[in-house]
């Protein structure tokens, strides 16, 4: 990891030293760090305090963690990094708050990506017993349970489910959309298992990345299609929403469905100009091409698109609402919590606000 120096002179490497007794960051090398920092790192946080910090991070997320510990409690970021097993050298401690906040973000990401195994659950019987005793189960599902039904997985960052590519050439998407249209497939045993959990009164919600609505076809009521579905379709121009079956015939026949409320393509009008006398003996490259007709767009602006989330699009508002409903925020974001009377924290607060403003605040 290279970071540009605050003065813009050259790239430097973060000088971090793993704390004794804690895992060192993968790939990091040992650097010389002042002994006083190492000693401080060993005594700043107790094991119970570190556990509480990590619990707050995993339970409430990065935004809450920074707001609570960096903004409200005004704990210096180098001291917080001790809890993550990182001790910054003197050079990096002098970096501007935005850079220090980046260090903390990297540490938080590493912690959130590491999943601790629960030692009490080791066998299938343990899982069955856990399901039997639980009353509010959240089930997360992805492409695996639909691929087993025969649905190909086309969704990739560089694939055909990119919103910009769709707007440029929607015919490519509709050339294969019939292959993933839900009417062609039946739910798998995994879908029916989710329905069974719901029938037992244990399902809090099924969050699925899939767009095939097979959970709904299996009878699951408490399901959220995080990436949308074919259940509805909207015009990318006027945003009018229609039932998904309104474009089913176009999908099955590989046609680009058009919005009936938007105007069709109108041939561009070319203003009449006075004819100029033609020069003789001109080569092909020297001849005037003003008489060429302007290009006509291949498609009108009103193209219908299934309400599925392409790369480049944000998740729906229903996703945010479901998260709040299923797990109420005990520490809601309010502008007043960002204020700090500590002048040393003002720059850090600004960096925090620009990076961690909640999505509903932006909208």
From TrEMBL:
Localisation per UniProt entry: Mitochondrion; Nucleus
Record's compositionally biased regions (Basic residues): 271-281
Names of the cofactor(s): Zn(2+)
Start-end of Acidic residues biased regions: 1-14, 286-295
Keyword rRNA-binding: no
Domain Deacetylase sirtuin-type: 117-363
Residue numbers annotated as active site: 227 (proton acceptor)
Record key words, sorted: Metal-binding, Mitochondrion, NAD, Nucleus, Repressor, Transcription, Transcription regulation, Transferase, Zinc
Polar residues composition bias: residue spans: 334-352
Domain of life, source organism: Eukaryota
Binding site for Zn(2+): 235, 238, 259, 262
Region called Disordered, residue ranges: 1-28, 262-303, 330-363
Family, per entry: Belongs to the sirtuin family. Class I subfamily.
UniProt-recorded name of the protein: Deacetylase sirtuin-type domain-containing protein
Taxonomic lineage of the native organism: Eukaryota, Fungi, Dikarya, Basidiomycota, Agaricomycotina
């Amino acid at each position: 990891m290279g970071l540009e120096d605050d003065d813009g002179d050259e790239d430097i490497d973060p000088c971090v030293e793993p704390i004794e007794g804690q895992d060192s960051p993968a790939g990091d090398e040992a650097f010389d760090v002042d002994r006083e920092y190492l000693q401080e790192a060993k005594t700043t946080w107790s094991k119970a305090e570190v556990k509480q910090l990590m619990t707050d991070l995993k339970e409430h997320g990065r935004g809450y963690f920074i707001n609570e510990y960096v903004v409200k409690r005004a704990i210096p970021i180098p001291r917080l990094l001790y809890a993550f097993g990182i001790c910054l050298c003197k050079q990096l401690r002098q970096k501007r708050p935005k850079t220090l906040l980046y260090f903390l973000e990297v540490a938080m990401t590493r912690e959130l990506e590491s999943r601790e195994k629960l030692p009490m659950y080791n066998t299938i019987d343990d899982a069955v017993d856990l399901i039997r005793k639980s009353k509010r189960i959240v089930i997360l599902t992805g492409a695996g349970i639909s691929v087993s039904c025969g649905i190909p997985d086309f969704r990739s960052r560089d694939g055909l489910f990119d919103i910009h590519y769709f707007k440029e050439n929607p015919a490519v998407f509709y050339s294969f959309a019939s292959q993933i249209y839900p009417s062609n497939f039946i739910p798998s045993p995994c879908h029916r298992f989710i329905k069974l959990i719901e029938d037992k009164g244990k399902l809090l919600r099924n969050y699925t990345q899939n767009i095939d609505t097979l959970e709904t076809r299996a009878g699951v009521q408490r399901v959220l299609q995080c990436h949308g579905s074919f259940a509805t379709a909207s015009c990318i121009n006027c945003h009018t929403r229609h039932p998904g079956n309104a474009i089913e015939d176009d999908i099955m026949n590989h046609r680009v469905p058009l919005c009936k409320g938007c105007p069709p393509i109108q041939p561009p009008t070319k203003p009449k100009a006075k004819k100029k006398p033609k020069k003789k003996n001109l080569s092909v490259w020297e001849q005037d091409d003003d008489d060429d007709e302007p290009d006509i767009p291949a498609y009108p602006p009103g193209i219908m698109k299934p309400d599925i989330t392409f790369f480049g699009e944000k998740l729906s508002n229903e996703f945010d609402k479901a998260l709040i409903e299923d797990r109420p925020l005990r520490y809601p974001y309010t502008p007043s919590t960002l204020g700090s009377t500590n002048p040393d924290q003002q720059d850090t607060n600004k960096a925090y606000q620009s990076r961690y403003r909640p999505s509903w605040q932006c909208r």
